[in-house]
Write a structure and sequence with these properties.
Radius of gyration of chain A: 25 Å
Order of helices and strands of chain A: HHEEEEEHEEEHEHEHEEEH
Shape of chain A: globular
Structural class of chain A: alpha/beta
Oligomer: homodimer
Chain lengths: ~290, ~290
Amino acid sequence: MDSRNGLGAPQETSDADIESFFESAPPLRDSFNVSRKVKEFIERNSRSFENGRSTRVVCVTSGGTTVPLEQRCVRFIDNFSSGHRGATSTEYFVKAGYAVIFLHRRGTCQPYCGSLPEDSLLDCFELTEDSTVQACPSHAEAVKRAIRNHHAAVEEGLLLKLPYTTIFEYLQILRVIAISMRSIGSCGMFYLAAAVSDFYVPWESMLETDPKILLEKADKALRKYKMHMVVANELSTRNEEVVVISSSDRIAVRREHQNEDVEKHLIDLLVERHAVYIEKSSTVALTGEVV
Amino acid sequence: MDSRNGLGAPQETSDADIESFFESAPPLRDSFNVSRKVKEFIERNSRSFENGRSTRVVCVTSGGTTVPLEQRCVRFIDNFSSGHRGATSTEYFVKAGYAVIFLHRRGTCQPYCGSLPEDSLLDCFELTEDSTVQACPSHAEAVKRAIRNHHAAVEEGLLLKLPYTTIFEYLQILRVIAISMRSIGSCGMFYLAAAVSDFYVPWESMLETDPKILLEKADKALRKYKMHMVVANELSTRNEEVVVISSSDRIAVRREHQNEDVEKHLIDLLVERHAVYIEKSSTVALTGEVV
């Protein structure tokens, strides 16, 4: 729906191009559950009647798509979209009696959240002395309205939220929805508000980064940027282990069990080293000694 | 701190490069307030004593940076980072008695939110019959812990959250913080967990998109993708006005006043057209007439 999608020279897309896109895409995680949820949602709503007619279903897409440049994706090309249009439109479709499949980019605007603070919903709530959660007075009305409308939509079974990040996930889930929507014919609508990339990088052509050169790069960064320490991690084990590199040593920091944050031990180490550093700096200041 | 930052061939950065980066950057919005907040935060904390020593201050950076490819930014190159490392580390620094300046990418992980559902905090709350907000039983403990720790950090004045999106904002705010941090010498620490792009596109070299060709492109999209309607909008007025283009007409849809969503009128129009379409489709089904 968004004219931004049309930027760039239009190219004809053949059936073979489409086939080749889906064949080259990485497998969709949890695809069985996504298909099941979509099918159930459409079936249930097409059986429910309101004002003498069956419920209409709209698929609203929302937010930008990412085009990964690496298989274990660190860098990608993105289309900006806050997701405001899709989230707000979802609210109005629900109000008009539609059942909405909200296919949205992870982390973008959510329906009924428009009048809440942008960054942390935690700012809207406080604990009373007896540990009861309550909405802060300044946000109370907006929070209550948001919770009421959101719960109503979910409880009436009128809102199915499905998240995606990459262009692969977006198109794969959209295809799943399109196949299920066939069963309701003209009672279905697609409202494509997502800002979709008009290109992609084929999955198998992407270069893997080499974990062997990690520590070497960390050593270089230490010298180049004149850091006291560099924390090196591999993408796949970044929540389990990091290596802290300084000019004098390399220390592997691991979490001790699955429910622990590796950051607990990492920050302990940094706080300890910082204290020693402050101590040494004040010795220099007092005696002029270079440490 | 993150080894991902070191990817790519290391190049020496001269003072002239740095100068030229800041000179070519778009002006930082709200820079006066950002500077004031940072200065006050550091001054207040450096004056407060705990266990016989002044409070230590750490600047934690978190999340990826975007490199805009257009001045009115629709497309950009991004570095992936959930912001988990920065957000979790912030919690442990606060626990260790540090005051934390949390310089984070908009929309990434926030401190104390790690154990809450990923997408919508609204899922954690419900309204009782007398319209009191309460945490859903399944999330109650996690929500209470999050609110308690978050409020404690904010109320003790130990957490200053500053958001950024682009590489320009990130480096401009980081410079503001670095200048203010000088006053506390070795008691300050920089913990740079953000995944920072190692390149940028100079602001003045970017091409503007031409609003005049918007409707022409929308017309093309309508035919190319065989849509029933295309909604065209300009980036700067997208929340005020859109044009709905079909094969038979162009309809400008505007909000009537500032507190209204343009989506209200847009969805009204689409729901109405959809009803006509369903009606026509069933006529076709009954009579075989082509409409």
